[in-house]
Please model this.
Amino acid sequence: MSPDEFFVSCLALTLSVVATGIALGPWDAPYKIRSVAHIENRFGKFAARLIWVVVAIVSGGSAAAIVSGLRPAYATPTVHGEPPR
Model:
C-alpha cells in the first residue's frame, strides 16, 4: 500500500467515525447543513440521522476497500519511479 492510499483510507475512516458520532450524538451543528436541514424539515430528525449513518457506512466501506487494495479492473497501481501506463 502506498502512502497516498494510506492517507486517503485514514481520511475515509475519520469521516466514518465523525459521521457516526454525528448520527448518534447530541451535536446539532451538522444538521444545519443545507441539504441535511432540508431532509430534516421534510422527513424529520430520524431521516436526517439515517443520512449520517449512510455516510458513515459508505466512508467506512471505502476505507476498507482502499486498505484491502480493491480497485476496478481498469485501474492499475503506479509504482514510484515508473511512468503510468
